[in-house]
Hints:
Layout (H helix, E strand, L loop, with lengths): L25 H36 L3
Amino acid sequence: MAIFDDEPVKRAEPYRIGQDLSFLSVDELKLRISELRAEIGRLEKEIEAKGATRSAAESFFRKP
Length: 64
């Protein structure tokens, strides 16, 4: 916590692939795993949505 209001708040550094993990506790590692799994799920949903959009566009523009 900052002593004075005008001091910037230090934020935790976001996860970077390949970063040194030795400074993280077991609980922090488990939290990162949970966050990464959630992010993988979000990415997979986006891939599905883009695939559905593409399929709809392809069927619309397909010649009879």
